[in-house]
Every structure is written in C-alpha cells, then in structure tokens.
Amino acid sequence: MRTKSEEKRQSIMAIAAEVFREVGFEQASMAQIAARVGGSKTTLYNYFPSKEDLFVNIMMQAAEADMTALFGGLQLGQGSMEETLLRFGQRFLQLVCTDEMLALRRLLITAAGCSDIGQQFYAKGPQRGMNQLALYLQQMMEQGQLCQEDPQIAARHLKGLLESEMLELCTLRVEQLPTPQRIEAVAQRAVRVFLRGYQPT
Question: Which pLDDT tens digit goes with each residue over 157-178?
Fold first, then answer.
C-alpha cells in the first residue's frame, strides 16, 4: 500500500514527465514543475534534490519493468543460445523503439550535453543491463559455445548490431516505428552476424 509521501512522489514524476516532453529538459525548470504540481519548489526539492535527479528517476521508472523482463530472460536452460539471443534481441528492439522510449532518448541526448545526467542514467540502468548480458555471454564462452573474448565488448557488439539498422532512423524520425515483423527480421540478422563473429570455427 502506497503512503501519501510515495503517492506525492509519483504525482510529481508524472507531472514532471509531461513538462519535460512539452518543453525539453533544458527549458524545463523546477519552478515550472512546482507550479504545475501545485506546490512550492521547497516541497519539490524535498523529494528530488535536482532537476537531473528527477529526470533520471522518471526515465528509470519508465523502463524498469521492461528492463527487468528483458535482461531476466538471459538465463541458462531456457532454450538454445541462439534462441535466447533472438528472444533478447526482439524484446530489446520492442523496448527501445517505442514512442515513449524514443522521446526519452531524445531528451536524454540533449540533456547530457549540459550536465552529468547521462552518466547518472547509464549507471542506474543501461550499465546494469549490459553487465547481465555480458555475464550470459561469459557463461556461453565458458561452455565453449562462444570464443573466449572480453564479454563486455561482446555485449556491446551485440547491442550495436541490434541497434544498427533502425534505432538512429527512428530516433531522428526518418523511419516510422517498426512492425513486429521488421523487429523479428532485424533481430535475426543481428544475432546471425554476432554468432558468425563469436562462435568457434
């Protein structure tokens, strides 16, 4: 059961997310958010010490459940390595190529140029996810299914292959959101190229 304090915190985050989407991170101010919330800046700072902290918390909450499901699927004994990576690739693309995540990505890229918000967000979310992916790949290396390489670099290579066909295009609105069929095809190609590079010959 949520306390009043937690309900207030969630309300602030929901309203702040609207403000960030409307005017962007740089133009948004804590005073503007406080006015929309209907309280004082002091109250706002009691919940969030800075605009950057507020923004990171909004982004993490938006992605947390999906990120947990995404990286939680990287388990041994849940199908072959190829099946596991294909399933991961499709879920990853389904997550990053949504309207909400693309909008948050655009805001984050803009905001990272004027603060340490990018570092904060990366440490709290993507870095943890990449560590889980690297751990799974390391296990596959130990079993002899992949060549012995740096698992962190291997994880970045797989992520890069998955993103390469359409993430930038969707972020810049060059392409529309991908269909499930396109996501499946992109994931298949990315995993196929990854395995060609990392499986023992």
Answer: 999 999 999 999 999 999 999 9
